[in-house]
Design goal:
Blueprint: H1 18-74, E1 80-87, E2 96-100, E3 103-107, E4 111-115, E5 121-126, E6 132-136, E7 141-145, E8 150-155, E9 158-164, E10 169-174, E11 180-185, E12 190-195, E13 201-207, E14 214-220, E15 226-235, E16 238-247, H2 250-253, E17 259-266, E18 270-275, E19 280-285, E20 288-293, E21 299-305, E22 309-315, E23 319-325, E24 332-338, E25 343-349, E26 355-359, E27 362-367, E28 370-375, E29 380-385, E30 392-395, E31 401-406, E32 409-416
Antiparallel strand pairs: 1-32, 2-3, 3-4, 4-5, 6-7, 7-8, 8-9, 10-11, 11-12, 12-13, 14-15, 15-16, 16-17, 18-19, 19-20, 20-21, 22-23, 23-24, 24-25, 26-27, 27-28, 28-29, 30-31, 31-32
Length: 417
Amino acid sequence: MIRRRRKNLHVVREQEDPTDRIVREILDELNSEDGMQETREAQRERKKKSARRRVTAGLVLLALLITGVGLLVNLQTYGHVRVTELYKNETAVNNGYKEFAGGILKYSRDGISYLDQSGEERWNHSYQIKTPFIETGRESAVIADKGGNDILIIRKDGVKGEVQTSMPIEKVCVSEQGIVGAILKSDLTAEVLCYDMAGNILVEHKTSLSGMGYPLDIALSEDGRILQVLYVYTQEGELVSRVCYYNFGERGEKETDNQVSRQEYKDMLMTAGFFLNRSTSAAVGDNCLVFYRGEEAPKEAQRINLEKEIKSVFHNERYVGLVLRNEGKEGYELRLYNTGGKMVMSKDFQGEYSNVKLCGGQVIMYDGKKCSIFMRSGIQKFAGEMSNNIMEIYPIAGVNKYIVMSANGMEKIRLVK
């Protein structure tokens, strides 16, 4: 019997150093943690991107919604109003009203007061003025006695100065600092004067038909440094208008009577002048609109000849508006020009309106109970009647909201279909 011997094969394995094993385990663990950290950072970045996409999509949808609502509100014409709040005023019939500094100036022969948008009287001031008329700016206003001698300078928080003139008052204007310009006239002569809030005379300029001419209108720049005066005179039987600018700063000290520029217009009557901002002013004649530019010595920059008769002129710091009588057809044309002299709106309309004003980008026309409102785009926003004769109207915050002053008092209204 043959016996086979199985050989025992011994595989000799190299023993692993315990220190190496521990290092390897630590490295494996660190690598695993780095991988987990990278995964967490990637997840956070994905979440951030997803959140940003959701926010962006939400903002786009919100913008589209707001635009759609805005178009829905502004592209239609409303014909009725709903009174949302009423603040009665027992003496409203004898008062005049003027929008000013977010509220209303209420004035009469006996005094003036300021009302906020809730109809609350913030202050009042008594006087005796036979024929009160008022001019307002953004920060200052003046009330004067037409043909009399009294001028009051007003800010939002009250009367800040009083002026007694030596001749009857014909025209007044006011700068934002409260400097007052006035045209005073008598039977034989006329004067152009400027006063500070204490009533001191800052400028006195006598005029005559044989000299510079007769002053028809006056305007002051925002800082009260530049004075615009419109004169008329005759030359060899021909009517001539002059638009003059006076600078009472350093630039004008070198010039005779501080006059820094003058433009003449033959066979034309320039009757209305005003400043739109620090560097732009305008004058309106019987057949043209002229823009002037320059802070120190304004010069004619653009003349717009008008083929139609001017019925009304109005302006704010952004636009000059004209109501022109149509030729060959009924009705009127409403135009707006921006400060660059570009016509930005032209719209025909029907009806007679004795009062026209600009409030931001809205043209508001009213007469008695009738009212018409046009947007800067040319869309007629409102055409209808109020419940009472309108004495003053202006828009307030909110969709289609306005304040209307009438014999009934102060009404907050909303335009409705």
